[in-house]
Amino acid sequence: MVETLKIEVERVAKSRLPQVDFSNLPFGKVYTDHMFMADFRNGEWGSPRIVPYGRMLISPATPALHYGQSIFEGLKAYRGTDREALVFRPMANFKRLNLSAERLCMALVPEELFTEGMRALLEIDRAWIPSTAGSALYLRPFLFSADEFIGIRPSLDFTFMIIASPVGAYYSAPVKVKIETHYTRAVAGGTGYAKAGGNYGGAIYPTKLAVDQGYQQLLWTDGKEHAYIEESGTMNVMFVFGDTLVTPALSDSILAGITRDSVLAIARREGMKVEERKVGVKELIDGLKSGLVKEAFGVGTAATIAPIQAIGHEGIDYPLPAASKQNFAAHIYTVLDEIKRGIAPDPFGWVVKM
Ligand code: COI
């Protein structure tokens, strides 16, 4: 455990903030002046510190590089009316980080380290929180093994860090996705439910093949039969079948997205019919052909609510009706966005001021 969380702070000599064009923020390319880090050594967490954002020295023999012992989270902070940081559901990310840590056999991160580290980073880099519509400060907590040992065994040393990046939309327009029926993202008993770096690394090649065919993302299917929709890699996926919001039920091969959970909670509160269940590829294609599927969209922290314009399957693209303001996706985007920004009441107690 961290005994007393005294965070050492080393400030940058000169902020890079004036060089940032906040009217044109890409996703994940600009980082704030500072980063938070702490080390797990000799069985305990210590040296919590804020240092200038920059390159680090790590051993070439660290298992994170060789065996992918690396996990991460993603969450967003918004600028409140009093310039405070409004952080969306950080405790959900904290819990999921440790769920991933357990699966990857890594040291658990104490709650105080996670929240106080985040608070300290937001305090020092507060001016980096964008206020423009569609933008936020993306926080990326991550944990990696830091041993100097290339034998395979549970690591002894770990480093926990938080970096922050002012971001715009991950997808700037409705996406075209392809149902993947050859490659597999995750299988029962695997690491699909964990936010393990390797899950994402392994998805890059099949996703690139789809991108080369004109899609932006895949709709991953189950690894056994490729008969059921799972998720979309950068986001969970939802459909409106008639008047019902349908999403694949969670399993150990699907990431339990926090945006997914938030959308379902709001939809249920609004009285919408919601089903978390298996979604068959055949059922989806039949629904797209018959018009029963009115909407499809991705839900994720980075992606927010990402309308899907077409779904490809076995060489045929099935278009969805054009995204409109009347759509559930547009409605839920606004409801969620207003809660996150502190514009609307937060009946779920999701927003944490830091
Ligand atoms: C997030 O939405 O925070 C994610 O982790 C997706 C990411 C791979 C960009």
TrEMBL record:
Keyword Amino-acid biosynthesis: yes
Keyword Protein biosynthesis tagged: no
UniProt KW keywords: Amino-acid biosynthesis, Aminotransferase, Branched-chain amino acid biosynthesis, Pyridoxal phosphate, Transferase
InterPro entries reported in the protein's UniProt record: Aminotrans_IV (IPR001544), Aminotransferase-like (IPR036038), B_amino_transII (IPR005786), BCAT-like_C (IPR043132), BCAT-like_N (IPR043131), BCAT_family (IPR033939)
Cofactor(s) needed: pyridoxal 5'-phosphate
E.C. number: 2.6.1.42
Biological-process GO terms, alphabetical: isoleucine biosynthetic process; L-leucine biosynthetic process; L-valine biosynthetic process
EC class: transferase
Record CDD domains: BCAT_beta_family
Free-text function comment from the UniProt entry: Acts on leucine, isoleucine and valine.
Name of protein: branched-chain-amino-acid transaminase
The species this protein was found in: Chryseolinea soli
